[in-house]
Amino acid sequence: MNNRIILFIAGFLCTSAIFAQTGTAAKGAVRVELRQSENKYQFYRDGKPYFVKGAGGSVYADRIAAYGGNSIRTWGTRGAEQVLDSAQKYGLTVLMGLDVARERHGFDYNDSVAVRKQLERIRGEVLKYKDHPAILAWGIGNELNLQYNNPKVWDAVNEISKMIHQLDPNHPTTTVLAGVNKNLVDHIKTRCTDIDLLSINTYGGLATLPRTIAASGWNGAYMVTEWGPTGHWEGLQTEWKQPIEETSSEKAAVYRSRYEYGVENDKDKCLGSYVFLWGQKQERTPTWYGVFTEKGEESEVVDVMQFLWSGNWPKNRAPHLYSFQLDGKKATQNIYLKAGTTYPVLAVVSDPDNDKLSYHWELLPEPTKVGEGGDHEDRPKPVVGVFFKATGGQVTFKAPEQEGAYRLFVYVTDGNNNVATANIPFYTNN
Questions:
Q1: What is the distance between the terminal CA atoms of the chain, rounded to a whole angstrom?
Q2: Rounded CA gap, 288 and 251, in Å?
Q3: 152-156 long-range contacts, Cβ below 8 Å, gap at least 24?
Q4: Pick from 331, 279, 321: nearest CA to 414
Q5: Number of other CB atoms surrounding residue 293 within 10 Å
Q6: How far is CA 136 from CA 40, 81, 153, 311, 388, in A?
Q7: Distances (CA, A) of 338 to 326, 347, 397, 404
Q8: Which DSSP category does 206 fall into?
Q9: Cystine design at 273: which of 73, 224, 262, 308 (Cβ 3.0–4.6 Å)?
Q10: Sign of CA dihedral 94, 99, 103, 108
Q11: 310-334: string of b/e by CB count within 10 Å (b at 16+)?
Q12: Dihedral angle at the C-alpha atoms of 202, 208, 212, 215, nearest 10 degrees?
């Protein structure tokens, strides 16, 4: 018997003994249970009902707590100790992500040695963090169904879940899917029977998710682990195949309606959600998925989340953007510009608190290399020297000399760390 097996058996027996003697969570850990009463499911944390009001991302934990949220989600264990301690400090829990290799990145689930090595790595991560009081549940992998062909990935997820349940009797397991359908659920129900609940990432489909879940054949509990604006793959596009992004004010409206229809309407089975992204990232644009700017400024979406989590609006609210136009045209109108020619730009914005507004304009070329499933993207470098005669929400803009696809951005701030954002894609011809 090798040392690794001996250590595993010893750890399992020790954990089981502690749990058997106390009947409660091991020292440090806070027990989380998934309870079912007829057709209703509910998390219980430390014996009390717990509905997840969460955000994806580990920055600004203090703001989550201050605005009425109670949980954060990670995608892996990098920096996990700091994330967990920060969450504990602010009274938050953590859906701790466990990074499981993706087939789209070249992992072969027919390679039993590689699969076993992955299991051993994740075992070490679980042993390291399982007794931290901020742990809510374990998220085994993220969007493993995206661009995959080998259903053996679900066998691997099931083995990881079994291992977790042996080592950690205090926290449920889940796996995070990119959308959901019957074929996928059939694989999960056949090959991945050990997980306690499903987790779904969805964007435009959130409002109809309860019906989609029912049609897929999943009758158990679930969480929504990513949700937000209309995704770049599911909304309108320009004639040159660039996605059209909603303004921050349009996003605020759809976040509220989708949450009310897709999360609050199915509390019998939906255990809560994690809004995406509580932070900022470059994914098609620097503003698409983050509810903050790179400077930490809060968009109107953050106001909506505070209302959805707490029932209260913030005392000072973000600016509201009514219209953004380039040469008298909106983002949906397939704008073609002539290189070197000047055009008028207009942003119509108001502030609910009558704060003085400041305008920042930016021009970015469209990214030439984009990721899938949230993979890393580099932020394009701004094109400079193209804005003139800026007055309030108006500026004169000179189309860049180089032919290609670009995007014009406006950032409108109120002096109180709040912002409205919008962008218009256009194509420059020589």
A1: 72
A2: 9
A3: 152/109, 152/110, 152/115, 153/100, 153/103, 153/109, 154/187, 154/188, 154/190, 154/191, 154/192, 155/109, 155/191, 155/192, 156/100, 156/109, 156/115, 156/118, 156/119
A4: 321
A5: 19
A6: 19, 14, 24, 24, 52
A7: 13, 21, 12, 11
A8: G
A9: 224
A10: negative
A11: eeeebebbbbbbeebbbbeeebeee
A12: 180
Measured between alpha carbons, how far is residue 112 from residues 115, 121, 153 in Å? 5, 14, 11
Establish whether the linkage from the previous residue to 337 is cis, with ω within 30° of 0: no
Question: CA-to-CA distance for 49 and 68, rounded, in angstroms?
Answer: 16
Q: CA–CA separation, 183 vs 199, rounded Å?
A: 16
What are the residues whose beta carbons fall under 8 Å from the beta carbon of 5, sequence distance 6 or more? Answer: none
| pLDDT, tens only, 313-368 | 999 999 999 999 999 999 999 999 999 999 999 999 999 999 999 999 999 999 98
Nearest to 274 by CA among 231, 222, 232, 233: 222
Q: What length does the chain have?
A: 430
Give dist(CA 280, CA 292) in Å, integer.
Answer: 6
Can you list the alpha helix ranges (DSSP code H) found in 179-242? 182-191, 209-216
> What is the H or E stretch that residue 120 is in?
helix 112-129
pLDDT, tens digit (0-9, with 9 covering 90-100), for 249-303? 999 999 999 999 999 999 999 999 999 999 999 999 999 999 999 999 999 999 9
Given a contact cutoff of 8 angstroms between Cβ atoms, the answer to whether 269 and 213 are in contact is yes
Number of other residues whose CB lies within 10 A of the CB of residue 405: 16
pTM, full prediction: 0.91
User: What is the sign, positive or negative, of the torsion defined by CA atoms of 166, 194, 77, 209?
Assistant: negative
Place of tokens 């953004």: 324
